[in-house]
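Q&A log
Question type: sequence-to-structure
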Amino acid sequence: MTVIKQADVIASVADALQFISYYHPKDFVDAMYAAWQREESPAAKDAIAQILVNSRMCAEGKRPICQDTGIVTVFVKVGMEVQWDATMSLTDMINEGVRQAYLNPDNVLRASILSDPAGARKNTKDNTPAVIHYEIVSGNTVDIQVAAKGGGSENKSKMAMLNPSDSIVDWVLKTVPTMGAGWCPPGMLGIGIGGTAEKAALMAKEVLMDPIDIHELKARGAKNRAEELRLELFEKVNELGIGAQGLGGLTTVLDVKIMDYPTHAASLPVCIIPNCAATRHAHFVLDGSGPAFQTPPSLADWPDMTYQPGASARRVNLDTVTPEEVKTWKPGEVILLSGKMLTGRDAAHKRMVDMLNKGQQLPVDLKNRFIYYVGPVDPVRDEVVGPAGPTTATRMDKFTRQILAETGLIGMIGKSERGPIAIDAIRDYGAVYLMAVGGAAYLVSKAIVGAKVLAFPELGMEAVYEFEVKDMPVTVAVDSQGVSVHNTGPAHWKHIIEQKIAVDTLKS
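Response status: OK
Response body:
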């Protein structure tokens, strides 16, 4: 009879979560590097390069791949012959492992979990509780898979109760473009088919734990309908031309994973859950012999790359930039920012808008300034700030017009596309939106040479900071005329891909 000790569960969970915060799986690194090698879109190739360089930096520095260190999801299979040497419940053991991982002083991870989600939304301070799924199975071991899922990708999850006669492929191809780029492509799509509504969602999440193996599947051929769907969707989703970070390009997904389950004759539940460029998951088995620690990879697993912006990149001094200068920036242009910028995301924007509505003076002057949508990781050792990549910009869309109109703000920096209401406001006020690469948080943080909190310190990572930056790389995503590269780029590359397919068809 296997006896599992409480301390072994806690230590194994904590170790796995620290491990995945800074080590990408090798299959992901290999797939991303292959995508970079074949990418023809300059903007997408630049974004993938930043992700790969960031990945290696994190592996070397043991700091988070992304500032959003995720909500912890755990899949547990408990053998029926297992006994426990414990005073805590298994749920409490797992949550204690999460707590220890996220409060580790050598690599503090961002606490993003809020209790009372429909009310006060108060931060639990240690990223607990995890979302835990249990299954009782035969055997004498405890099998645990842990993942840390970022909000940007989780928020793009989609579900439908299709009619049995409906096409799953058609639904996926219609749905993926509506997800925008907030899930930080290229990544994986997890698709659950069948069961009930909650079973489809659970399968879509669990299948993302599988390794990237689409090219092996292509080589050997499909053996069942689910594998046929994987191959078909992999090709057709990439043919959409969405590309890295939604900028347009050849690779939108690195793999499509599918899990299915028998369903009711009247039903066809389908759920898509994307995994982002900060793919984070680990697996271990407890057999009573002690804790199960992860094995560090070799740095030789990463391509030896450095990030260098092109010679045409425009250098901008944020301390002296003017509205007139902003109007000369072109869509897709790479900008290197130096000087001082403000930060602020959902909670800070809501505070500022509430103050404006009450006629109160804001605690910071936004006139002729830029605001970066970010919630950084706390710094450790000699860091100015921890990993500080962008958050999804569309969440700030509803605040944009009022902020631009009443404060004189001239620029915003975030992740992925802006929606129509924000684009209209940007055009009307001659402002600009710049995009930083999601999934390159540690790389971005190295451009930040100073940081201090200016307002709303009680909001924690959502407080308003002032960052001083040097040569922070961004791309003009929406110019002062309202032209969005997230609209023009994918459309352009979809057309290019269609032409390539037409030429290949003629040749065959």
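Response note: The chain is about 35% helix and 25% strand.
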